[in-house]
Amino acid sequence: QVQLVESGGGLVQAGGSLRLSCAASRSIYSINAMGWYRQAPGKERELVAVFTSGSTTNYGDSVKGRFTISRDNAKNTVYLQMNSLKPEDTAVYYCNARVVTTLLQEYWGKGTLVTVSS
Length: 118
Fold this sequence. Notes:
Layout: E1 4-7, E2 10-13, E3 18-24, E4 33-39, E5 46-51, E6 57-59, E7 67-72, E8 77-82, E9 91-100, E10 104-108, E11 112-117
Parallel strand pairs: 2-11
Antiparallel strand pairs: 1-3, 3-8, 4-5, 4-9, 5-6, 7-8, 9-10, 9-11
């Protein structure tokens, strides 16, 4: 089991910045993939940024060059630095973790709301 707790959402003006945090309940070394997805009202959940095997990162096309994912292994925490925010970035941001043993186990945080005003 992995519990994920997000923090850092809020209201920001367009062009501003926010940093989200996701704290895991166990060592992130034991997690195969960990990162962020988002879901805007009326839209499907989409990839924002994720660490996959090792230190490989993958970003959604709409956030490349503006968002940066990072992690602190000692704190079992993954961060999402969001710069140059746009109104279309408004969404609930979810932390995700995937653990592969004999099965794929997937875990989600409860989400944190990011609202970008124009």
